[in-house]
Design brief:
Length: 144
């Protein structure tokens, strides 16, 4: 007798999230989550949830204005990943971006850093970002 194996069911609906890989030469921006939030004090890329009626790009532009008070230019998708946390499953789309106007301010995060790919191991990132960080390192190493 044959049995059907079902794929593992995710515990949560998938939440669409957009994030920005903002570069300045060989450095890129990372932001530290506030202590009171889920995954508090971990580092991440700026961004947030896509609201109903928004495109991923529109959500990212809005989030960067709300969180950093900057206007960004979105330059296409860098990569995307689906990650299941205990409390939420996210489909995280990371866009290449640059700051078009303004200086980043700490409106949401507790810290901002500009780091080189070689400095990634010095910071503790949100688990969903691990694959993205590996791609950044691989891309940087292929540029040499």
């Amino acid at each position: 007798m044959w049995s059907i194996v079902k794929p593992r069911q995710m515990k949560h609906n998938i939440t669409e999230v957009s994030a920005a890989l903002i570069r300045d030469g060989k450095r890129f921006m990372i932001c530290r989550r506030p202590e009171y939030k889920a995954r508090g004090l971990l580092w991440e890329f700026v961004g947030g949830k896509v609201e109903k009626g928004e495109t991923r790009e529109e959500a990212l532009i809005r989030e960067c204005k709300e969180e950093l008070d900057v206007r960004i230019k979105v330059n296409g998708v860098f990569t995307d990943v689906v990650h299941e946390y205990p409390d939420i499953t996210v489909h995280l789309t990371v866009f290449n971006a640059s700051i078009a106007e303004g200086e980043p301010k700490l409106l949401e995060h507790c810290d901002i850093k500009w780091i080189l790919p070689s400095e990634i191991p010095l910071y503790e990132f949100c688990p969903a970002d691990k694959t993205i960080l590996k791609k950044i390192i691989d891309e940087f190493n292929s540029d040499d």
